[in-house]
């Protein structure tokens, strides 16, 4: 079929009004090519310069669902809860002995001082053996005695060291601030979310770099091991890995460029295509900077996705250009015809991509919403660069003679593989294929039943088990009795009533109930300290280690309680539940147990509010993700279906295009379940992105099939002709993008490797679905229309 007939195919399938819009845009674009290039050059320079100022960005509040009731409670009492929530644990280890040496204690003091002066540290709540809030207390025949763990009289002598050991035991700090084997000590570092002087959010990248330079590297040079565990360190390590992510991005771009050249055998087309795609990414980053956004660790992979989208659309452009020029058209004529043929399906496909990203906004987690905005901006830029800039550039460079010879060989080929593939539209094969897909769907449904919400591994699942952070976390769990997973419940009373017997008794019953929940290892609260103080004031007699109905006794016992255990006005007393892990099942059990207790014991003026601590915040995040996942999938499929229906004006065609995408989604979730990947912040967006990108294949392929059907071809012949042009592009794009992201498997970041695996599966399955299941479904659903 010659180029003129192909152009007629593209024109006949569009409504008159839509065709007029395409014709008008085509004339305006190609009659003003130099002006178009000048505009894009100016915009590229401005946005490219702006992109230079883009910086990595991360925020604790953007990582949590601020609209969730748990987080609302946390934010309302943030000053009281800060030591249990956004906190770092810095372990200072003596690899040559225990901590009770003058040299090590001096090292610990210096480390505490260095951390104290790092901007972003909540200095009033910083705690180590050297800080004034590290206190011991004991009961003697003379009454209650107390003092600092390392007293002012400490001089480094053997007697002073023995006194420090005794004070550590008195303060019950073994397993919490001192390792069980006495070979390391902990510095607890609560962080401020905003700088109190500038009011700006804490820059986690800068903070962790300062901690790395001032503490870890400084003491490593002295032979002291420093280990850091906490949210800020996770974010800092992710930001520090941006260089590795950039390396994999460059590797992927190089691999895709090589594959693209091998496909078209034209260095001009390859260079223009890759440069246009890179320009899309640069302009996207420039717009982000102008709008005041940064790149957080979870959206730092979005630029590659935008590059992948660009390649997907550009391959269609190159393919039609080669076909048109192979038929004798000049570069300008071929570009104009290609623009007319691809403008509507290309724009529709890009709109579908944008919809896939925008639906992520329904998830009330700032980092995912920023990812949605970042990706949507990229698609917005891609509409201009792919639909307008690339055709104009190709009208100048055209296709090289070698590329045309490659196209000529294709035109002369009998396409035996595609001829056999076109048989899938025959009823006997189509029905078998649909039945096979239903079996796969059933298998996928069965396998995805084990899909969990949240993290399923210890430590930080963003990193591999051998990563430094996970090794530090494993060391802490092995050498300390304190868990790193803390679920904090707020016990709220009227002001100055937290120490009343009725309140304390209710809190005590709650603590005993929680200790019976599987996964809760220990409890820490104001009321444990009150019982200890009552015991201490009664000559240490164990029978007095109980709450008292005498209000004077209770008030006296509350005196001097740590600020992390009670608010200054005695209206909030956090109750910390130390958990065995932060798996979704554990968190769900704890949340359910707290809710059951509050329903059973309505305290009137006394309220038990959830939740804070890293485990409480993660529980809220899991709940939002579980609720939003189905809502997001329904929205993404519903809205993309509307976009597809608007393009083809047929519910049957829409179903044929969307069904393979749904099958791919179910199979992807099944693989996640079998591999132990939970649905969380790092993996949830992949599904929406995969659906948005995967619909491109179907839109391009079926628009070509429909064009040939309008010429009167039978469905099998129409599908075969579409396979020779668009089908090769779809197959090439799916395989190439899958190979590109497959390199992520070698990344040091586990979440990048996981995303790469899921994207490989989605790219391949969506490609297979478009080439096999889509035409099979369409041929069965449209049999009557085709017969007429």
UniProtKB/TrEMBL annotation:
Domain of life: Bacteria
A GO CC term attached to the entry: plasma membrane
Primary location group: membrane
Listed transmembrane segments: 34-54, 245-264, 271-294, 300-320, 341-363, 375-399, 429-447, 632-648, 655-675, 681-702, 723-746, 758-782
Gene3D superfamilies membership: Multidrug efflux transporter AcrB transmembrane domain
Domain SSD: 274-396
Subcellular location, record wording: Cell membrane
Membrane topology listed for this record: Multi-pass membrane protein
Keywords: Cell membrane, Membrane, Transmembrane, Transmembrane helix
PANTHER family from the UniProt entry: MEMBRANE PROTEIN MJ1562-RELATED (PTHR33406), SSD DOMAIN-CONTAINING PROTEIN (PTHR33406:SF10)
Official protein name in the record: SSD domain-containing protein
Organism field: Zestomonas carbonaria
């Amino acid at each position: 079929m010659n180029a003129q007939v192909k152009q007629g195919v593209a024109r006949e399938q569009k409504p008159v009004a839509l065709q007029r819009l395409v014709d008008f845009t085509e004339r305006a674009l190609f009659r003003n090519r130099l002006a178009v290039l000048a505009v894009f050059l100016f915009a590229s320079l401005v946005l490219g310069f702006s992109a230079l100022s883009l910086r990595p960005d991360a925020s604790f509040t953007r990582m949590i669902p601020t609209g969730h009731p748990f987080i609302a409670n946390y934010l309302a009492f943030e000053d009281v809860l800060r030591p249990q929530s956004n906190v770092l644990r810095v372990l200072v280890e003596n690899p040559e002995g225990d901590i009770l040496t003058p040299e090590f204690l001096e090292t610990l003091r210096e480390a505490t001082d260095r951390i104290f002066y790092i901007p972003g540290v909540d200095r009033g709540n910083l705690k180590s053996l050297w800080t004034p809030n590290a206190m011991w207390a004991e009961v003697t025949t003379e009454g209650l005695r107390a003092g600092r763990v390392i007293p002012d009289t400490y001089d480094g002598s053997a007697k002073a060291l023995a006194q420090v050991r005794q004070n550590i035991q008195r303060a019950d700090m073994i397993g919490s601030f001192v390792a069980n084997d006495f070979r390391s000590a902990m510095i607890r570092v609560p962080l401020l979310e905003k700088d109190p002087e500038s009011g700006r959010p804490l820059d986690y990248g800068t903070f962790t770099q300062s901690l790395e330079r001032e503490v870890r590297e400084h003491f490593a040079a002295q032979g002291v091991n420093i280990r850091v565990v906490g949210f800020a360190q996770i974010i800092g390590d992710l930001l520090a890995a941006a260089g590795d992510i950039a390396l994999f991005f460059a590797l992927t771009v190089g691999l895709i460029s090589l594959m693209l050249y091998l496909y078209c055998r034209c260095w001009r087309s390859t260079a223009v295509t890759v440069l246009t795609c890179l320009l899309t990414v640069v302009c996207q980053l420039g717009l982000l900077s102008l709008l005041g956004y940064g790149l957080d660790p979870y959206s730092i992979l979005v630029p590659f996705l935008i590059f992948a989208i660009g390649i997907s659309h550009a391959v269609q452009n190159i393919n039609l250009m080669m076909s048109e020029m192979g038929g004798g058209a000049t570069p300008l004529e071929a570009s104009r015809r290609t623009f007319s043929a691809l403008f509507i399906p290309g724009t529709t496909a890009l709109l579908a991509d944008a919809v896939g990203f925008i639906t992520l906004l329904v998830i009330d987690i700032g980092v995912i919403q920023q990812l949605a905005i970042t990706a949507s901006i990229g698609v917005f830029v891609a509409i201009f660069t792919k639909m307008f800039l690339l055709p104009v550039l190709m009208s100048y460079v055209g296709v090289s003679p070698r590329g045309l010879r490659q196209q000529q060989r294709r035109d002369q080929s009998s396409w035996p593989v595609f001829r056999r593939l076109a048989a899938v539209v025959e009823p006997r094969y189509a029905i078998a294929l649909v039945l096979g897909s239903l079996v796969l769907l059933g298998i996928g449904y069965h396998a995805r039943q084990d899909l969990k919400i949240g993290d399923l591994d210890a430590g930080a699942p963003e990193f591999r088990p051998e990563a430094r952070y996970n090794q530090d976390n494993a060391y802490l769990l092995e050498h300390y009795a304190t868990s790193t997973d803390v679920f904090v419940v707020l016990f709220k009373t009227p002001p100055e009533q937290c120490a009343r017997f009725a309140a304390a008794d209710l809190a005590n019953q709650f603590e005993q109930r929680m200790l019976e929940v599987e996964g809760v290892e220990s409890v820490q609260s104001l009321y444990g300290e009150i019982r200890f103080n009552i015991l201490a004031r009664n000559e240490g007699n164990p029978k007095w280690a109980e709450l008292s109905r005498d209000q004077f006794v209770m008030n006296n016992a509350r005196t001097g309680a740590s600020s992390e255990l009670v608010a200054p006005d005695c209206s909030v007393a956090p109750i910390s539940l130390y958990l065995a892990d932060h798996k979704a099942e554990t968190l769900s059990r704890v949340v359910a147990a707290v809710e059951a207790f509050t329903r059973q014991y309505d305290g009137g003026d006394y309220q038990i509010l959830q939740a804070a601590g890293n485990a409480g915040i993660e529980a809220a995040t899991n709940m939002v993700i579980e609720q939003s996942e189905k809502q997001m999938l329904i929205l993404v499929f519903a809205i993309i279906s509307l976009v597809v229906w608007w393009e083809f004006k047929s519910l049957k065609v829409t179903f044929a295009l969307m069904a393979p995408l749904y099958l791919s989604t179910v199979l992807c979730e099944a693989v996640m379940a079998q591999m132990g990947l939970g649905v969380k912040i790092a993996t949830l967006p992949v599904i929406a992105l995969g659906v948005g990108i995967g619909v491109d294949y179907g839109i391009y392929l079926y628009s070509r099939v429909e064009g040939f059907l309008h010429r009167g071809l039978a469905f099998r012949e129409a599908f075969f002709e579409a396979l020779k042009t668009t089908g090769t592009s779809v197959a090439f794009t799916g395989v190439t993008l899958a190979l590109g992201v497959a390199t992520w498997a070698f990344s040091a970041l586990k979440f990048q490797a996981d995303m790469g695996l899921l994207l490989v599966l989605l790219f391949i399955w969506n490609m297979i679905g478009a080439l096999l299941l889509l035409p099979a479904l369409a041929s069965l659903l449209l049999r009557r229309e085709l017969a007429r």
